[in-house]
Amino acid sequence: MTRRIAIFSPRGGSGVSTVVANLALALVDAGVETACVDLEGHGALRLHLGLLDSQDQSAGGRAPEAPDGLRLIESDGSRASEWQDGALAGQTPARVVLVDVPRTRPDLQAEILATTDAWLCVLPADAMAVAMAPQVRKQLAATRQAFVVINHVDPRFALRREAGLFLADIFAARLVGSIRKDEAINEAQANLERLPIFSPHSAAWADFRRLAAAGREIAAGLRPANSAQL
Questions:
Q1: Cβ(76)–Cβ(39) under 8 Å?
Q2: Do the Cβ atoms of 94 and 71 come closer than 8 Å?
Q3: What are phi and psi of 24, to 5 degrees?
Q4: How does pLDDT run across 144-174, given as a tens digit for each residue?
Q5: Residues with Cβ < 8 Å from 202, sequence gap 6 or more?
Q6: Can you give the pTM of this predicted structure?
Q7: Is 12 within 8 Å of 129 (Cβ atoms)?
Q8: CATH of 3-54+64-119+186-219, one of 2.40.150.20, 3.40.50.12280, 3.40.50.300, 1.10.10.10
Q9: Which of 61, 147, 203, 226 is the most buried (most CB within 10 A)?
């Protein structure tokens, strides 16, 4: 049975596309057939998945391919079956569908959140996320299967450390993981490569693998344990 997880944030710059792509890669690495859905059309997921051709690719060279078990679906949202089932051209539905919820399409946001099986809200460890926490908590109360991941965690800096700890406290019952701020993510993008290939031992990739364990439990309709490291 296909399980649909909407991944979103109440504000821009939270790293939603980063989480969608790398969580998808981590789920596939764990043997879970996964589709990730880009409804915004900016190619962000392609970049994170290393599916963009390099500038110096030789003429006639073969374009990069997604790893086995992973599908990238790019849609304007007009065909609901594309993002609800993670299937195209007669393919069987994917086991898990991760939807990158576009902030630029509030009409589509409401539809996605109403028709997915679970929500994963991405909150960066910063002052703005702290200020928005009461609003987010109220929104997440609409469904039992709503969870939080804290992104850009960096204990070296007091503001990020304290913001992360505050968010972890206020969302304790829904917190399922955290992603450390890691330059390897940006470097992988700059090299048009997937994070687990470019930097398989990076801190962020270790965090995404832990988040994938929570993702499997969410897909099974369970409430995963908190795996955040703050």
A1: yes
A2: yes
A3: -60, -45
A4: 999 999 999 999 999 999 999 999 999 999 9
A5: 182, 184, 185, 195
A6: 0.92
A7: no
A8: 3.40.50.300
A9: 147
